């Protein structure tokens, strides 16, 4: 098991390096001149002399390989430069905004898990019953409704008409309710369908029939044996969506004026704040890699045969 974990950890290194290379290439392929973008954000007219001076200051007149090596050195120190708009270190700005995104992501993930697991299991056990029909309806609506429209709909009913919850901002638990509901509704629809299909598939397996012939109660079979195997696709989906949530749910943060990482990235795009964009792309890639690694480790914990299979293939 330890060798499998070490192998997976070593595989992360080239992926992170590739992410830095892609980020570096996208910045230099872009038609936006970083020096011109900086001067524009600072409200300075970009004369040829000032542009040349800023390009030399940013190291843009050096060979590409040298620029890339300097970029790697800065990233290793979590130094992503200074924001063109605020003239503050990008990493300091990110550290202020990232907790808000983490809070929203974890609350949305927790709500989706609490709601989808019992709904998916009950829908599979009572196939074609009213619970199954309810889960199908939730899944169809969740897969069809746009998040921004759902967010505005919740604002209209719970904030404008009923005046129960605040419209925007962050501070109290009331501010967290509407964006959490907006994000988790789609996840509940997805996870419920995944778990329902997986549980139905496992209920047809031989070990379930054998357990029933032994007189084991249905509830014990489902909770102790079936759910442990059927939940594997759900864990994979959770890992992928957690990376997406942690990188900033851009649309929802814009709708509810949530001061998170995603909204910060949108503002950077509109202001051509290249250091912030570079930081976002790199951190997004790293977060997805870490989430996928965690999913692999959870699968390994639940099914130790994975490490044995990896050793057999070597």
Describe this structure in words.
It contains 15 helices and no strands. The chain has 314 residues and is an all-alpha fold. The longest helix has 36 residues, at 90-125. It is flat and about 85 Å long. The relative contact order is 0.14.
Concise summary:
It is a multi-pass membrane protein. The protein is mostly helical.
Weakly predicted, low-confidence segments: 308-314
CATH topology: MetI-like fold
- Rg, Cα atoms, Å: 24 Å
The gross shape turns out to be: flat
Largest sheet: none
> How much of the polypeptide forms β-strand, as a percent range?
under 5%
Whole-number total of structural domains: 1
Q: What is the CATH architecture assignment?
A: Orthogonal Bundle
Q: Please identify which CATH superfamily we are dealing with.
A: MetI-like
Q: Overall mean pLDDT score?
A: 80
CATH class descriptor name:
Mainly Alpha
InterPro entries: BPD_transp_1_N (IPR045621), MetI-like (IPR000515), MetI-like_sf (IPR035906), Nickel_NikB (IPR014156), Opp2B (IPR050045)
Keywords: Cell membrane, Ion transport, Membrane, Nickel, Nickel transport, Transmembrane, Transmembrane helix, Transport
Protein name: Nickel import system permease protein NikB
Membrane topology: Multi-pass membrane protein
């Amino acid at each position: 098991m330890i060798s499998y974990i070490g192998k997976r950890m070593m595989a992360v290194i080239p992926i992170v390096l590739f992410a830095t290379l892609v980020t570096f290439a996208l910045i230099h392929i872009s038609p936006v001149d970083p020096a011109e973008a900086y001067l524009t954000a600072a409200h300075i007219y970009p004369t040829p002399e000032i542009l040349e001076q800023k390009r030399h200051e940013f190291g843009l007149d050096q060979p590409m390989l040298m620029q890339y090596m300097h970029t790697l050195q800065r990233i290793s120190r979590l130094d992503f430069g200074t924001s063109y708009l605020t003239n503050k270190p990008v990493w300091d700005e990110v550290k202020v905004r990232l907790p808000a995104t983490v809070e929203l992501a974890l609350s949305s993930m927790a709500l989706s898990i609490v709601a989808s697991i019992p709904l998916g299991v009950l829908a599979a056990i009572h196939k074609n019953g009213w619970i199954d029909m309810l889960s199908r309806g939730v899944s169809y609506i969740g897969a069809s409704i746009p998040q921004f429209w759902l967010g505005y709909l919740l604002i209209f009913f719970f904030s404008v008409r009923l005046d129960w919850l605040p419209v925007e901002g962050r501070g109290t638990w009331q501010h967290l309710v509407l964006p959490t509901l907006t994000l988790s509704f789609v996840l509940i629809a997805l996870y419920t369908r995944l778990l329902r299909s997986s549980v139905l598939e496992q209920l047809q397996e031989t070990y379930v029939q054998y357990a029933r012939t032994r007189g084991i109660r249905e509830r014990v079979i489902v909770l102790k044996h079936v759910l442990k195997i059927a939940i594997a696709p759900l864990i994979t989906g959770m890992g992928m969506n957690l990376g997406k949530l942690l990188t900033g749910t851009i649309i929802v943060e814009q709708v509810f004026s949530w001061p998170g990482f995603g909204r910060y990235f949108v503002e950077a795009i509109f202001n051509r704040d290249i250091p912030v964009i570079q930081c976002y792309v790199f951190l997004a890639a790293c977060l997805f890699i870490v989430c996928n690694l965690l999913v692999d480790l959870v699968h390994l914990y639940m099914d130790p045969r994975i490490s044995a299979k990896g050793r057999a293939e070597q």
